[in-house]
Design brief:
Layout (H helix, E strand, L loop, with lengths): L1 H15 L9 E4 L3 E5 L4 E3 L1 E4 L6 E8 L11 E2 L9 E3 L9 E3 L8 E9 L3 E3 L5 E5 L1 E7 L12 E7 L10 E5 L2 E5 L2 E4 L8 E7 L10 E3 L3 E16 L2 E12 L4 E7 L5 E5 L3 E4 L3 E9 L2 E4 L2 E5 L12 H18 L10 H11 L5 E5 L4 E3 L7
Parallel strand pairs: 2-11
Antiparallel strand pairs: 1-4, 3-8, 5-6, 5-9, 7-8, 9-10, 9-11, 12-13, 13-16, 14-15, 14-17, 17-18, 19-20, 20-23, 21-22, 21-24, 24-25, 24-26, 25-28, 26-27
The structure holds 2-acetamido-2-deoxy-beta-D-glucopyranose (12 copies).
């Protein structure tokens, strides 16, 4: 290095009365501090110099977390690593600029350039300090809290702390990874379940960057509570299976089936989505989650009796039914997994194969109570 050359220089100086022949080896970093958003790519500008008679053979970039002379190095031109996130974009003249792709949090710290010539080696001082930041989202809601309910409005603002208070970055907003908006603020008004999703922002020019995730999960009480009826071949004296379904967020935690007696009293007959019906009568299902409950939009009416009473139906009636049923049964044999036909079966079958004869779906206006206060993110 130069110390080594100094003797020579002094010699030369004495010989030529000049002290200007020592060209020091040096490395210059144009930036002292570099701030980058996680996921982005960043260039560390750098230039270097050495005596003209030297020829550069190897260039290396190191990080303060490793040994400055012995490495390991992030980049070493003597190694052919093509998959590395670290790329030397300089040359073997005077440009030692360094490119880091997909910045990670642990790329934080000081970097140094080292080069080896045919005559000497030189490592620059630890130079530029890289700072890695996340994009942040701040929420502006009328109601302050981070919870969302239907009808709420929220402004989400993306900030890049590398901008140091100036809004110089251009942002893209994404919902579930799909770009939906460009600009620093995403304004979501009159929130409904269609706004449910994961929101992030990223730098428009650096799509690999991403902010924290804001999850909008609009909760609501049960909706579209309805009942479907599946005719059964007699199972334990039951002839129909009734299934109650409802859309709710969070999902329905409690289904309650009621039978409505002659005095319009409600009797609980089931606490699951499915009940088996063996008696005639009127049935109603109610679905509940923490935000409220909703009754099924229909009351299921089963005509009495469709059980043993059937067997007592006068022969004439049976014959009448049988004639109508035979045609129906033919159509329906496709779904019938049982092969035990016969008059009685066909008659009974008509009751559970053709529920229209026995089931009346009476419309009941949807009643709904909702706890609008507790919906939360
Ligand atoms: C590096 O060397 C060049 C050429 O000798 C010189 O012009 C420059 O001032 C030096 N820089 C530093 C920081 O020493
Ligand atoms: C080159 O890649 C190998 C394996 O991927 C790794 O062990 C080595 O440290 C890398 N060297 C440099 C200089 O990046
Ligand atoms: C060094 O090379 C990079 C990439 O080619 C270029 O962007 C940069 O301007 C160069 N720096 C100098 C000082 O020439
Ligand atoms: C840096 O972090 C990444 C993941 O975030 C990890 O894969 C990698 O091994 C880390 N590198 C070092 C040197 O700790
Ligand atoms: C950005 O968010 C990170 C965590 O996600 C936090 O550590 C940091 O303090 C936040 N910065 C600002 C400026 O809010
Ligand atoms: C959101 O921003 C718009 C336009 O700047 C403003 O009119 C509105 O009041 C803001 N809403 C909230 C909840 O901050
Ligand atoms: C704010 O939220 C609370 C509970 O989440 C609710 O009771 C109140 O009505 C809300 N206020 C406004 C203005 O939306
Ligand atoms: C909010 O959305 C609901 C339906 O989701 C709609 O009925 C209502 O009119 C909307 N309100 C405003 C102010 O846009
Ligand atoms: C949102 O993120 C959460 C947690 O990572 C995940 O469970 C959920 O499926 C995501 N939602 C969507 C709509 O992608
Ligand atoms: C309720 O059903 C109607 C039509 O069947 C549908 O348009 C609507 O999206 C459903 N609502 C919910 C919350 O599933
Ligand atoms: C279901 O809800 C009803 C009324 O809403 C309640 O009486 C009953 O205890 C609940 N059952 C279960 C298992 O949570
Ligand atoms: C469901 O219907 C029953 C009987 O008509 C009624 O007492 C109850 O209040 C209804 N529940 C809801 C949530 O509408």
């Amino acid at each position: 290095m130069c110390v080594k050359h100094r003797n020579l220089t002094w010699t030369l100086a004495l010989l030529f009365l000049s002290g200007a022949l020592c060209i020091k080896m040096n490395v210059t970093y144009q930036l002292g501090h570099i701030c980058a958003v996680k996921g982005s790519s960043v260039v560390i500008p750098c230039s270097y110099d050495y005596p003209k008679e030297h020829k550069v053979e190897e260039v290396l970039w190191g990080h303060e977390k490793y040994h400055i002379y012995d490495g390991p190095f992030l980049f070493d031109s003597a190694m052919k690593n093509t998959t590395s996130r670290f790329q030397f974009i300089g040359d073997k003249e005077h440009n030692c600029s360094f490119l880091i792709h997909q910045i990670e949090n642990n790329d934080t710290g000081k970097y140094a350039f080292r080069f080896i010539t045919d005559k000497d080696k030189f490592t620059g001082k630890y130079g530029p300090t890289l700072k890695v930041v996340d994009l942040n989202i701040s929420l502006a809601k009328l109601n302050g809290s981070r919870s969302f309910k239907e009808g709420d409005s929220v402004n989400m603002t993306c900030t890049n702390s590398c901008d140091g208070g100036h809004r110089s970055s251009i942002f893209t907003w994404l919902k579930n990874g799909e770009p939906i908006h460009e600009g620093p603020v995403l304004y979501v008004s009159n929130i409904s379940s269609t706004n449910t999703g994961n929101y992030t922002c990223s730098l428009k020019t650096q799509r690999a960057t991403t902010s924290e995730v804001i999850n909008i999960d609009v909760e609501y009480g049960p909706r579209n509570t309805s009942v479907s009826i599946i005719p059964l071949k007699e199972v334990d004296g039951s002839y129909f299976k009734c299934i109650c379904t409802s859309n709710a967020n969070p999902p329905v935690e409690n289904y309650t089936w009621f039978k409505i007696d002659e005095n319009d009293h409600l009797i609980v007959v089931g606490n699951q989505s499915v009940i088996s019906v063996s008696d005639g009568g009127q049935y109603l299902c109610s679905a509940t989650n923490k935000h409220g409950s909703q009754n099924s939009t229909v009351i299921v009416k089963f005509k009495e009796p469709f059980n043993r009473g059937l067997l007592l139906i006068p022969t004439v009636a049976v014959l009448l039914i049988v004639t109508t049923v035979i045609a129906i049964t033919r159509e329906q044999q496709v779904d019938s997994h049982h092969d035990d036909g016969g008059v009685i079966y066909s008659t009974v079958c008509s009751y559970y194969k053709k529920p229209k004869l026995n089931v009346y779906l009476g419309l009941l206006s949807t009643q709904r109570t909702e706890d609008i206060n507790q919906q939360r993110l």
